[in-house]
Amino acid sequence: MTEPMLLNGQRLAAEMRGQLAAQIARVRAQGYRAPGLAVILVGDDPASAIYVRNKKRAAQEIGIEPVDAVLPQGSTTEDVLRVVDQFNQDPAIDGILVQMPLPPQIETETVLARVRPDKDVDGLTVTNLGRLTAGEEGLVPCTPKGILRLLEAYDIALAGRRAVVVGRSRLVGLPVALLLMQRQATVTVIHSRTPEPETIARQADILVVAAGKPHLVTEDWIKPGAVVIDVGIHRGDHGLLGDVDRERVWSRVGALSPVPGGVGPMTILELLDNTWTAYRRHEGLSE
Ligand SMILES: NC(=O)C1=CN([C@@H]2O[C@H](COP(=O)(O)OP(=O)(O)OC[C@H]3O[C@@H](n4cnc5c(N)ncnc54)[C@H](OP(=O)(O)O)[C@@H]3O)[C@@H](O)[C@H]2O)C=CC1
Ligand SMILES: Nc1nc(=O)c2c([nH]1)NC[C@@H]1CN(c3ccc(C(=O)N[C@@H](CCC(=O)O)C(=O)O)cc3)C=[N+]21
């Protein structure tokens, strides 16, 4: 078989960031304010701190004003709600992101429910997930949106093809399954209670893996020529690992979105894109 194609999210995201930067520069030159993105980080998880730093830097580089709120590990739900309320009311803030996971004593549902849907750049509120389910316009979760954009950029057909999604989370698995269905794929979702997942995965023309289990997916899960999107990300002693064992699947896949350099950079790009969309709606600028 021919060498697999690497789906380069790093390069595509950089290209798209350039386009966003140019659009933001154009409205700034017309006298508009800068778009504002608030990032709320609760606790001292080192991986979360790195992501938040990367997100802020990416925003700044394209002309979005990042603001952050860092709360101590021992914060209460009320403490977090107060910060959400403050950003909800702030006219300089277009997007609010609450970094997941939150410490166990905090009610995640209650916090998410407080974010104004028009500022929900993660697309995680019931309002935006409902809009997505109904096929209405809203803010779409970043990782799923980035995966679809990556597939599209590489001209990977979805209509009539079999897609299998490993994982059903609100952040990734569930919304990516909805988006693939909307693009006319036949979608199956696998989760931790699915018996013989390999047998199902082996039917996939497009396999999206968001299980959060390092190197879960090996050659037994792969139909020859399949397009494999690795979403998982794990920080180990030997660098970053995905949910897909790249060496073991390499001789079978048709295309692979790798870790790092695949979905991660696309996720950050879509966060910026959602912030830009929210900003234009707030400022009454045309789409
Ligand atoms: N690159 C990026 O931009 C991003 C990467 N991630 C990464 O993606 C991964 C998934 O994230 P997220 O969706 O938030 O994780 P969650 O832990 O919320 O969800 C994991 C899902 O995978 C399922 N699952 C777990 N183990 C298995 C298994 N052995 N076989 C089949 N399904 C399984 C779970 O099933 P059940 O529902 O039954 O528990 C659950 O639905 C993580 O590694 C995360 O770090 C996340 C967001 C963005
Ligand atoms: N409310 C919320 N929204 C999220 O979108 C969200 C979240 N919480 N919690 C955690 C996960 C994880 N996540 C990543 C984003 C970028 C990279 C990324 O940029 N990865 C680079 C590598 C960066 C590195 O070196 O660590 C890559 O894959 O190439 C990874 C993971 C967003 N998440």
UniProtKB/TrEMBL annotation:
Keyword Hydrolase: yes
EC annotation from Swiss-Prot or TrEMBL: 1.5.1.5, 3.5.4.9
Residues annotated to bind NADP(+): G167, R168, S169, I233
Residue stretches making up the Tetrahydrofolate dehydrogenase/cyclohydrolase catalytic domain: 7-122
NCBIfam families on file: PRK14186.1
Transmembrane segments annotated in the record for this chain: none
PROSITE patterns the UniProt entry points to: THF_DHG_CYH_2
GO cellular component: a single term: cytosol
Gene Ontology BP terms: L-histidine biosynthetic process; methionine biosynthetic process; purine nucleotide biosynthetic process; tetrahydrofolate interconversion
Official protein name in the record: Bifunctional protein FolD
Pfam families found in the cross-reference section: THF_DHG_CYH (PF00763), THF_DHG_CYH_C (PF02882)
The gene coding this protein: folD
